[in-house]
Design goal:
The structure holds two protein chains of two kinds. Chain A is α/β, with parallel strands linked by helices. Helices cover about 45% and strands about 10% of the residues of chain A. In chain A, the strands form two sheets. Chain A has a six-stranded parallel beta sheet. Chain A is globular and about 55 Å long. The termini of chain A are far apart. Chain B contains 13 helices and 14 strands. Chain B has a seven-stranded mixed beta sheet with strand order 3-2-4-5-7-6-12, sandwiched between helices. A five-stranded mixed beta sheet of chain B has the order 9-11-10-13-14, with helices on both faces. In chain B, helix 3 packs parallel to helix 4 and helix 9 packs across helix 13. Chain B is globular. Classes of the chains: A alpha/beta, B alpha/beta. The structure holds thiamine diphosphate (TPP) and magnesium ion. Thiamine diphosphate sits at the interface of chains A and B.
């Protein structure tokens, strides 16, 4: 774990809370994958296994009032934001008790109560909308902040460039969090991106930009703390480039032949989850028993959510006429 | 000529290879299309960069506007680019390039400019990809002057029509659709281009004409046995090209049968079926034995839940029901 020089050190409580969010993401992801493999869930799944530290750390610094916009690979961002798992499971199962009544599905969950405002399937589109949420916070005189999550590949689409410029000109309380996992579908970072560090692009838009080890909770905490504080204090946006790796390819079932076995193995060997757990115990921030107990509770929560989701009723076809407009359409 | 059994995705690959071999002005660009990136996420462009070189087959960043823009620029310089927009919904972020530029440059330059680009794009409900990955937007493009819209349903047509799009002097959008992509059929290894704007009669009949295109043709076809059993003689017309569409073939067929049903996967309201239905009504008013009917998706985004997605798509059962109602 690298310590940043002038960064505020997270409290013991904060560290354990980050771990709680990480393990909740991972246990939930594991259950989703198992359920898909058993054929009990049918859905395209973009696992974020390996990327847990980023939203876990950021969310530990957010309240329910703070907003996020995320992407198809975003269930980790939602779970980190403490979205309840029952409606999450019902949604990915396409059931009425889902966050979106089964209409949105795994790429498009929305849960305003926990600040999950938009989940987009269109690369780049989380950022312009995050600006609007941040603008509203400013108009409301609120100190809430908005996080726009996106991938490295998304930094090459027009929406990224327009959104960063606008956020800077309007000094918006938004943090652009790029989860740089080194690949955009099958394209390796350097074959699609003109700069060696996406954070460098911040210079062009007049905002601070930092490249952070997205698998290191302490480095992430320091960088996120600074960016979030800056946004809350009305000093404007920040671009955080968080370097990480996705362990399970682009979409579940992809054979990831576009990466080498060695680089994948090397990344998995540095899995941040067991590493952080060991560190917490070694530093005396938590005991093995305490973390095992935490994990058992989370596993029970996941199991309950899974049962709930899969038992929830299927939507009626009348739902095709509802929610298209505020007023139900005639049959 | 040797024919081979292949699915429509393989037919696309085969058409691209043939076009590139025949004309070195043909280029391919799009996200992940080169072999270094696996030859396309569906494999549609597999092998092309290895065979024709990285200069002619280029993977791009996730930048749809830049993809279409580059295709237009190369086309203005004499090339014939085939740009892949991975999914049709992603054309939305390149709409300025497609609608304001590719489609209009010939007219607005007084005929000096020509933009012979082909935009290949995949779409269609059925894979539970929900509201931002599955829309059939052919109506948007068909409404635009200056762009041709092609939507085949069989492997042979995928190949023959893609070859024509690539050779065509105007921009074409070539729609690959989920419901027909993996159905095999016979395809010539060296195929002859199939002319744009010409329909294909899937089955001849005398009682009623069904007009359809893209994957929806297969769902209409699936309704035919039940209808035959019910003693109804159906003429099924696969339009293949949505714009310009084969008015002659459709009108000749309906003049014969006196009844018409237009069926598409796209949303029915304000959909392309309206154009066809109203043309039939205008031209054949006195000869119709029943009102012209349309079937299409409800005015709803494509839903995720399987039960809703199934209800969203016009099933063979609903086609059969509508035909029977028109015969009653
Ligand atoms: C506008 C648009 N173009 C293409 C796609 C298809 N697509 C989905 S994910 C993806 C790769 C995105 O990579 P990155 O931004 O690095 O995020 P990651 O998937 O690695 O988390 C692509 C090209 C899309 N969803 N939207
Ligand atoms: Mg990525």
């Amino acid at each position: 774990m690298a310590e940043l020089s002038n960064a505020p050190a997270p409290s013991q409580e904060a560290l354990v809370d980050i771990y709680r969010r990480m393990i909740r993401i991972e246990r939930n992801d594991d259950a989703i994958r198992k359920t898909i493999r058993l054929g009990r869930l049918v859905m395209p799944y973009y696992s974020a296994r390996g990327q847990e530290v980023i939203p876990a750390t950021i969310s530990s610094l957010l309240t329910d009032d703070d907003k996020i916009c995320t992407i198809y690979r975003g269930i980790h961002d939602m779970v980190a934001k403490d979205m309840p798992l029952r409606p999450l499971w019902a949604e990915i199962a396409g059931r009425v008790d889902g966050t979106c009544k089964g209409k949105g599905g795994p790429m498009h969950l929305t849960h305003p109560e926990t600040g999950v405002m938009v989940t987009t399937g269109i690369v780049g589109s989380s950022m312009p909308i995050a600006n609007g949420l941040a603008w509203a916070a400013k108009l409301d005189g609120s100190k809430r902040v908005t996080i726009a999550y996106f991938g490295d590949g998304a930094s090459n689409i027009g929406a990224f460039h327009e959104a960063l410029n606008l956020a800077s000109v309007w000094k918006l309380p938004v943090i652009f969090v790029c989860q740089n996992n080194g690949f955009a579908e099958h394209t390796r970072y350097e074959n699609g991106t003109s700069v060696d560090f996406i954070a460098k692009r911040a210079i062009g838009y007049g905002m601070p930009g930092h490249t952070v080890d997205g698998n290191d909770p302490l480095a992430m905490y320091a960088a996120a703390h600074e960016a979030i504080t800056r946004a809350r204090e009305g000093e404007g946006p920040t671009l955080l480039e968080c370097k990480t790796f996705r362990f399970l390819g682009h979409v579940l079932g992809d054979d990831d032949k576009y990466m080498t076995k060695e680089e994948k193995a090397a990344a998995i060997a540095k899995d941040p989850l067991p590493a952080f757990k060991a560190w917490l115990v070694a530093q005396g921030h938590a005991t093995e028993d305490q973390l095992a107990d935490m994990q058992a509770k989370i596993e029970a929560e996941v199991e309950d959510a899974q049962e709930f989701g899969l038992a929830s009723p299927l939507p009626s076809v009348d739902e095709l006429r509802r929610d298209v407009f505020a007023q139900e359409m005639p049959a | 000529m040797t024919a081979k059994k292949m699915n429509s995705l393989q037919a696309v690959n085969s058409a691209l290879a043939q076009a590139m071999a025949e004309d070195n002005k043909v280029l391919v660009l799009g996200e992940d299309v080169a072999d270094r990136e696996g030859g396309g996420v569906t494999g549609a462009t597999a092998g092309l960069s290895t065979r024709f070189g990285d200069d002619r087959v280029k993977s791009t960043p996730i930048s749809e506007q830049a993809i279409i823009g580059a295709a237009i620029g190369a086309a203005l310089s004499g090339y014939k680019p085939v740009a892949e927009i991975m999914l049709m919904n992603f054309t939305t972020v390149a709409m300025d390039m497609i609608f304001n530029h590719a489609a209009k440059l010939r007219f607005m330059s007084g005929g000096q400019s020509t933009v012979p680009i082909t935009i290949r794009t995949l779409t269609g409900a059925g894979w539970q990809t929900a509201g931002q990955h599955a829309d059939h937007l052919e109506g948007w493009f068909a409404h635009t002057a200056g762009i041709k819209v092609v939507a085949p349903s069989t492997p042979a047509d995928y190949k023959g029509l893609l070859l024509s799009c690539i050779q065509d002097p105007d921009p074409c959008i070539f729609i690959e659709s989920a419901g027909s992509l993996f159905i095999p059929g016979e395809v010539d290894e060296v195929a002859t281009p199939i002319p744009l704007g010409k329909a294909r009669i899937v089955q001849e009949g005398t009682d009623i004409t069904i007009v359809s295109w893209s994957s929806q043709v297969l769902r209409c076809q699936a309704a035919l046995p039940a209808l035959a059993e019910a003693g109804i003689s159906v003429e099924l017309v696969d339009l293949r090209t949505v714009s310009p569409w084969d008015r002659e073939a459709v009108l000749a067929s309906v003049a014969k049968t006196g009844r018409a049903l237009v069926v598409h996967e796209a949303v029915r309201d304000f959909g392309p079926g309206g154009e066809i239905a109203s043309t039939i009504a205008e031209e054949l008013f006195g000869q119709l034995k029943a009102p012209v009917r349309r079937l299409g998706a409800p005015k709803s985004p494509v839903p995720f839940a399987k039960v809703l997605e199934d209800a969203y798509i016009v099933s063979p059962e609903r086609v059969a029901e509508a035909v029977k109602a028109l015969m009653a």
